[in-house]
């Protein structure tokens, strides 16, 4: 990757919601609360009150510590508030359609189709998404209590769904891998990225109102509505942990081979140590080292994928320096996953019927060339690295007929009949406004 001069960008951190840029603490608890607006005036009052409790990206040192609240709105929510048509029409067209309408593009078909989603996800009833996050459950409930006056005593605003989540001290997700490792550096944010080899990305890739990697500036009408806002994709993803474990066991020659297969599928060992840096065995110390566990490239050191398969989950999600993937910098997102539901006990191979998985949030200023491109072209297609229609082995929309290839000398290894390990339970495309925009929404009049 060639070096470039980093322009001096000054972000309005005090106007950007903290949930946009700040990495999450470890461990932490979180909750997602969805609201429906039945009365326009009460919805506007909710926006005014939210402006007083939402935490800004500049508020990193406060009595609340690593506790914050964020607020986002769906297209239906903006309509419910009475945002003028000339403003609504300036939002990204994918956002205006909504996630459910984009199901075929995203691979949300069959068991993951919107017809099977958990109500009210994907319906016009979802207007506002409130996310609260804190280091533990007690402080989380305190944060929710702090936010409660923003919607209490507003009969025209109804809480219609809630999902509690958690991040363990081990930082592992339900399949057992360390999660939340990769975080891009954003110019002007003051927050270091997790890969020292990656040049900071232009702020406009993640926040509206600033130049992006192509030199363009995403705006809305009026400018006050869009500036310092961003798009956020929320998805509830159910993980079939027992099925995943059985598939590994049935395709491995023994326990050591099972762990190797697991690492080849993910691109990392369960500890978080990347195959790129330790291809033959796990290294828990490396996996836990935030200064080393994400500092590597693919194309420069492993173009054929003999160390990290091209179809592995982490290489698909972020091909890094791979030219064949196009300009990867145009498709970078901020990804955050938070586990929900009880963990399946270690060694259990039969499904216990519990709902468990991840609540995922993807942050970016370009829904089409970021989230939707990655989902359709990298996760559910293999053309970009010469693998035809092969899908991501972990999160792809598998139907039991696909396979996964592990490059190996003298003969490659293939895993056949990949089942669907992750099922979409629902999701929403949202807009997370800046704090000034929240107040603007609250001050709307008919």
TrEMBL record:
The keyword Iron applies. The keyword Endoplasmic reticulum does not apply. InterPro entries: Dimeric_a/b-barrel (IPR011008), DyP_N (IPR049509), Dyp_peroxidase (IPR006314). GO terms for molecular function: heme binding; metal ion binding; peroxidase activity. GO terms for cellular component: cytosol. Keywords: Iron, Metal-binding, Oxidoreductase, Peroxidase. It holds the Pfam family DyP_N. Residues 16-146 form the DyP dimeric alpha+beta barrel domain. Its cofactor is heme b. Belongs to the DyP-type peroxidase family. This is Dyp-type peroxidase family. It comes from Nonomuraea muscovyensis.
